[in-house]
Specification:
Rossmann fold; two-stranded antiparallel sheet; alpha/beta; 5 helices; 192 residues
């Protein structure tokens, strides 16, 4: 892509990356990447041995953490949690989850459980884009950043597809952004 055709704003990058991911997610390469990233996540979780693991309900071609959920419960006997995002005031908390399809939705229509609130010790954070230094491009709502700012003791691990890698100049981290401890892709582990 020519230099003058590169996206200029976070919104432009988000649109470009989501459009590319929508095409890519149904390819054999995406299936292989899903398995490779799941293995990488489980290797890191084996080191961390979480008591409470925060996950997310996958959408828009994200890494699907449902296999991690089942494997982590079996391997570490950890409890699971999914986020509940509230629109007004904008905030997010995690709720205990039994691993079954949730019966309720948060304020954005994303499936979530109706379990008790909990603060996980490890959270998997979905990334639309990322930098190797630990900065994340999400969907623009700031929910994970708010959660991480309120809970600095939580180990936040980004999960992303390698195709979402950006430079800091591309992403232009902002003052409210919170860097992740590490970002895992199907082929790399980037520690900040």
């Amino acid at each position: 892509m020519a230099e003058n055709n590169l996206p200029r704003t976070r919104s432009d990058w988000r649109s470009k990356l989501l459009a590319a991911r929508k095409v890519w997610i149904n390819t054999p390469e995406a299936e292989q990447a899903q398995a490779a990233l799941q293995d990488r996540v489980m290797t890191i979780l084996a080191e961390l041995e979480p008591d409470y693991l925060g996950l997310y309900w996958p959408m828009q071609g994200e890494f699907n953490p449902m296999g991690v959920a089942a494997a982590a419960q079996q391997a570490f006997a950890c409890r699971l949690a999914l986020p509940f995002a509230q629109k007004s005031p904008p905030q997010m908390h995690f709720r205990l989850w039994n691993g079954q399809p949730p019966g309720t939705q948060d304020d954005h229509g994303i499936p979530c459980p109706d379990g008790s609130p909990v603060v996980p010790d490890v959270v998997l954070v979905p990334c639309v884009g990322f930098t190797p230094e630990g900065w994340r491009l999400g969907y623009g709502g700031g929910y994970f950043d708010r959660f991480m700012a309120a809970h600095p003791q939580v180990t936040a691990l980004g999960v992303a597809w390698e195709a979402g890698r950006l430079t800091q100049a591309d992403l232009q981290p902002q003052s409210h952004d919170i860097p992740l401890m590490a970002i895992l892709t199907e082929s790399n582990t980037w520690s900040s």
